[in-house]
Amino acid sequence: MTSINTLKNLFTSICLVAFLVGYASLSRAETITHLIKPLNIEAEANYEKGDENKPVVLIIHGFLTTNNFHTVTAMTKGIRDEGYSILAPTLTLDISKRKGSLKCNSIHTHTLEKDIIEIKSWIDWLKAQGHKNIVIVGHSSGSQEILEYLNQYQDPAVTAAVFTSLFYLKGKELGTLDNEIVFANDLIAKKEDRPHKYSFLFCKNNYLATPNSFISYMKLDRQYVLNSLKNLKIPNFTIMGSADKRYLTVGENWLTELEETGTDLFIVKGANHFFSSEHEFDLQDHIIDILKQLSAGQD
Asked: What's residue 299's pLDDT?
C-alpha cells in the first residue's frame, strides 16, 4: 500500500511539474496590439521572446483565417519549443483587432496591397524590438503574400523565407472565371465599389467582395508565383504535402515547377494542405531543421 501511495504522489508531482512548465511557457506569450499607421488600423499578434542569439520567426496565416489556425499554432509550438522568438500576427482584413476567421459571404474590402503593408509594418515592429535576423514563414495564401512582400521589399533584416502549401490564387483550374474579372475591372473603371459575389478558391460564387478587393489578388497567378520564387535573393524553402487535394486541380507537376525555381523543396508524404494530425510533427521537424541549417550557415 505504501508503495502504491508513493507512486501516486510521484505521479501527482510529475503532473504538477508538467503543468507549471507548460504554464510558464504559455505565460511568455504576449498579445501585441500594433497600429498599422499607413492604414490607420489596429492589428494584433502573439509574440514570444526566445533566445536572443537565434532568429525571430514571423508566421503569416492562410486565407481568411487567423493566427489561431491549427497549422499556424502547430508551427508556433514546434518553433517555440526550440527557443526561437516568434511573432504570429492576424492580418486585419480591414477589421481592427480581428479575432475570428471570415466567411466567404462576409463583405471583403481588404486588398493584397493592404496585406503587404501589414506584413511590412510587423517586420518594422520586430526591428524596433531589436531583432536583426528575421525568418519569415507563410502557410497557404500566407506563403503567396510573403512572396509578394519579398517582391516589393529587400530588407536586410529578413534573411530567409519558408513557404508551406504554396500554390497560387488565380487560374481557371482553381475556378477563376474570366467574365468575373472583366466585370470587376469594369466596375473599377466606372469607379463603382459595390460588393459583388465572385468565385475565389473554395468560395464558389459566394465570395462577397468589392471589385478592388477581388482584383488585387488576381495578380497571383501560376507564372507570377513561379517567377517571383525564382527571382528571390535570399535562402528560401518550400514544404508541401504529397496528399494535398489541390494537386487534383493544379496537377502534381506543380511540384516539379516549384523545384525548378531553385527553392529547396521538401515533400511530406501523406500530408494534406494543412499538415493535419501526425503530419504537424513532420512540418515542425522540417522547419526546425531549416532554422538550424540557417544558423549553421551563419557561423
From this structure: 59
pLDDT digits (tens, 9 = 90+) for 98-109: 999 999 999 999
Q: Do 122 and 136 meet the contact criterion of CB atoms below 8 Å apart?
A: no
Closest CA to 282 of 292, 268, 295: 268
Sheet containing strand 41-48, strands side by side: 30-36, 41-48, 85-90, 56-60, 134-139, 158-164, 236-241, 264-268
Kindly report, residue by residue over 111-146, the tens digit of the pLDDT: 999 999 999 999 999 999 999 999 999 999 999 999
Number of Cβ within 10 Å of residue 112's Cβ equals: 19
Give the pLDDT of residue 295.
Answer: 85
Q: What is the mean pLDDT of residues 234-250?
A: 97
Where is pLDDT greater, at 177 or 9? 177
Four-CA torsion 86, 109, 190, 224, nearest 10 degrees: 30
Task: Find the helix packing angle between 70-81 and 279-298, rounded to 10°.
Answer: 50
Q: Degrees (nearest 5) of the Cα angle 77, 80, 83?
A: 155
Q: How many CB atoms lie within 10 A of CB 273?
A: 19
Q: Which long-range contacts (CB under 8 A, 24 or more apart) does 224-230 make?
A: 224/168, 225/144, 225/147, 225/166, 225/167, 225/168, 226/257, 226/258, 226/261, 228/147, 228/148, 228/150, 228/151, 229/147, 229/163, 229/166, 229/258, 229/261, 229/262, 229/263, 230/261, 230/262
In the three-class reduction of DSSP (H, G, I as helix; E, B as strand; rest coil), residue 31 is classed as: strand
Domains of the chain, with CATH numbers?
A: 31-169+220-298 (3.40.50.1820)
- Could you tell me which residues are beta bridge partners of residue 162? 137, 237
Which single residue is written with the C-alpha cell 494542405?
273
Residue 23 pLDDT more than 60?
Answer: no
